[in-house]
Amino acid sequence: MNAVKEYLVEGKTLPETYHKALMALESNENIYPCDDWDTTQKEISMTMCVLEPLAEPMISKLFIGGPEELEQYRQEMLDGILDFEVEKGNWAYTYHQRMEKQFPFIISELNRNPSSRRAVIVVRDWEVDSESEDPACLQHIQYFIRDNQLHCKVLFRSNDACKATFMNAFALIMLQKRFADALGVDMGTYTHRASSFHCYEKDFDMLQGYVKRIGKAEDEYDICFDYEDGWKEDMEFAQPMIAKKVEELRNR
User: Fold this and answer.
1) Residue 148 contacts by C-beta under 8 Å, 6 or more apart in sequence?
2) Quick one: which of 16, 53, 107, 162 has the fewest CB in 10 Å?
3) What residue ranges define each of the domains in the chain, with the CATH number in brackets?
């Protein structure tokens, strides 16, 4: 019997850790059915531990999208710029819509007791997700303060390695930084657990291409960008275009 294998990868930066995870997935030969989407998939269970989440280079070249897409996703997760789609009945949920009311608790709980183990955001809504054809992938987030650093641990039931993982992790690190700043503590580690870390059959070539690029890279900047020196500015430049797009969606 081929069990879903467990992997743990660790790296200093987000791209280093993410790239190790892609390589682990590609190296696993087990192919499993994915009947919900009428396809097959490569699948492992993956835990990625990023030791210094804000260390450069912070941006991987190996994900779908550019500065505008990453900035929009950051705003969706942290600021809820598309929450109105839930109010209009177009979407069942957004992550921000499910998390927003819990944000103040994280601050108050960790201010009350910096050693608390209770600073948890629950994302899964059982009543909605148990009936949904597209239930939330992110399940919960837990924060710890240890040695004056805010550590973050997240759990995904399912995570698309090539098309979602990097953007998910980047936005959640930005949320972690927002909390760390509010609490007046330093950034600690970011741990990203995906019980099903997968790549669908239609994206096997994409995964293989990513891994080939990792293997051919002579240094990290062949497959990475700095965030503070370049991408942050590009993401900020995209903000007016994102605002216009969001307003058009809101008015439809």
Assistant:
1) 185, 186
2) 107
3) 6-250 (3.30.572.10)
CA 93 to chain centre: 17
Give the 3-state secondary structure of the chain. Answer: CCCCCEEEEEECCHHHHHHHHHHHHHHCCCEEEEHHHCEEEEEEEEEEEECCCCCCCCEECCCCCCHHHHHHHHHHHHHCCCCHHHHCCCCCCCHHHHHHHHHHHHHHHHHHCCCCCCCEEECCCHHHHCCCCCCCCEEEEEEEEECCEEEEEEEECCEECCCCHHHHHHHHHHHHHHHHHHHCCEEEEEEEEEEEEEEEHHHHHHHHHHHHHHHHCCCHHHCEECHHHHHHHHHHHCHHHHHHHHHHHHCC
Q: Classify residue 206 by burial, with Cβ atoms within 10 Å: 0-12, 13-18, 19+.
A: middle
Spans of the chain, pLDDT less than 70 = 1-2
Give the other-Cβ count within 10 Å of 134's Cβ: 10
- Active site residue ranges: 137
